[in-house]
Write a structure and sequence with these properties.
Blueprint: E1 10-17, H1 27-36, E2 40-48, H2 60-73, E3 77-80, H3 86-96, E4 99-101, H4 103-114, H5 118-133, H6 136-139, H7 159-194, E5 199-204, H8 210-218, E6 235-241, E7 245-251, H9 261-266, H10 272-275, E8 279-285, H11 291-304, E9 312-317, E10 328-331, E11 337-341, H12 350-360, E12 365-372, H13 377-385, E13 389-394, E14 400-407, H14 408-417
Parallel strand pairs: 1-2, 1-3, 3-4, 5-7, 5-8, 8-9, 9-11
Antiparallel strand pairs: 6-7, 10-11, 12-14, 13-14
Helix pairs in contact: 1-4, 4-5, 5-7
Length: about 425
């Protein structure tokens, strides 16, 4: 008989260094994950291996060291900075006589704590159920046989089969509810598309400062903290840009190295805002020593959710943590802004950010001169209502010459909605 041990808040951390970069994890990041989960780290057991041990993940000697640390510090949970197989978890739990949690389960737990919206809670639960479905055997090994005794013999489900069936049914139910939420999201996107409002999506590694920047730009009070996965639920706000007009800014969940596939799948609906954005604002913690690796990881997740083709503007955030770094705009060979250096928390370089954003979206602005005859005073009134007139004067024939500048979407709406043919009033001499 094997029953799961109850988890607690006093943990022994386990971290191994592997030569392969694809399986290597960052210990500092792991400690931040543990802190974000509200767990107290008592000690760290570290080591090096070329390959994971099939039974304990760590070697048998290191497994004994972990068990000794659990007894010494009276810990009630062991946290691994790696993904474990169900059998490895079971074997280590039997040896240490306490709960064992791997990196994937820890991230799922943090997500469960942070989710606030109905959709977010459903997505996290679905990811947890997917992860749990492969681990049922571990907690029910004493209930694998069918029930016996008088009146209970004969065909029937084992406890394990019952649990698997209930899990499947719950997952099907959640998927149906998420489909309903996704339909509602699509309706919202369609209405924004009809209004021709471009969407800008904040993406980046977790704790890069996306929510802080979002709050500065929108004067919102979205939860922002110096911890991993402070933001889970997407938040959308409208902001006004000079020369561009209204745009929708979306704050999204932060990415992390080796993000569980179940989570990527579960949050695909949420990240649709990212896939369909006009421009991705890739926020980078420029003071982080592993910023290059973090950028690579974000690019990898963007390719996973099919958003790698969306244009990007890189936001080099937290320059206040560096010496001799001034706010600036980096440009490509064509003079187009590609990077903005700023500090959202210290409110440094925000004006440069707005300037770069207006330049990147400037191709969506129409500038032209209209020659309007006296008979079309109604059209002149419409243009004044749009606050797009830069200059106005009259020629010798009494025609009103208007120099206008307005967002392309407003121009297209004008072309579509007005009964007059505006194109014929465009000054062709320019």
């Amino acid at each position: 008989m094997f029953e799961r041990y109850q988890a607690g808040e006093q943990a022994v951390l386990v971290h191994l260094d592997f030569p392969d970069e694809s399986t290597r994890e960052d210990l500092t990041e792991f400690k931040m994950l543990v802190s974000s989960a509200g767990v107290t780290a008592l000690t760290v057991v570290s080591g090096k291996r070329s390959n994971p041990h099939p039974k304990f993940f760590v070697g048998s000697g290191k497994a004994e060291e972990i068990a000794d640390a659990v007894r010494l510090y009276q810990a009630n949970v062991v946290l691994f900075n790696h993904s474990l197989s169900p059998s490895q978890e079971k074997n280590i739990e039997a040896l240490c006589q306490c709960r064992v949690v791997d990196r994937t389960t820890l991230i799922l737990d943090i997500f469960a704590q942070r989710a606030r919206t109905h959709e977010g809670k459903l997505q996290v639960e679905l990811a947890q159920l997917r992860h749990m479905s492969s681990r049922l055997i571990r907690g029910w090994t004493h209930l694998e046989r069918q029930k016996g005794g008088v009146g209970l013999r004969g065909p029937g489900e084992t406890q394990l089969e019952t649990d698997r069936r209930l899990l499947r049914e719950r997952m099907i139910n959640i998927r149906k509810r998420l489909e309903k939420v996704e339909r509602q999201r699509q309706q919202g996107r369609r209405s924004r598309t009809r209004a021709e409002l471009p969407t800008l999506s904040l993406v980046g590694y977790t704790n890069a400062g996306k929510s802080t920047l979002f709050n500065v730009l929108t004067q919102s009070d979205v939860y922002a903290a110096d911890q991993l996965f402070a933001t889970l639920d997407p938040t959308l706000r409208r902001i006004e840009l000079e020369g561009v007009g209204g745009v929708i800014l979306a704050d999204t969940v932060g990415f992390i190295r080796h993000l569980p596939h179940d989570l990527v799948a579960a949050f695909k609906a949420t990240l649709t805002e990212t896939r369909e954005a006009e421009l991705l604002l890739h926020v980078v913690d420029i003071s982080d020593d592993r910023r290059s690796e973090n950028i690579e990881q974000v690019e990898y997740v963007l390719s996973e959710i099919e958003a790698d083709e969306v244009p990007q503007l890189v936001i080099c955030n937290k320059i206040d943590n560096l010496d001799d770094v001034e706010p600036r705009i980096d440009r490509d060979d064509e003079g187009r802004p590609i990077r903005v250096w700023l500090s959202a928390q210290a409110n440094i370089g925000i004006d440069l950010f707005f300037s770069a954003l207006s330049e990147r979206l400037g191709n969506q602005v129409v500038e032209t001169t209209l020659i309007i005859p006296p008979s079309e005073g109604k059209l002149r009134g419409v243009l004044y209502g749009l606050h797009c007139i830069q200059n106005e004067y009259y020629d010798g024939q009494g025609n009103c010459q208007l120099k206008i500048k307005l967002p392309k979407r407003e121009w297209n709406r004008l072309l579509k909605n007005e009964s007059v043919e505006i194109e014929k009033y465009i000054d062709q001499t320019i």
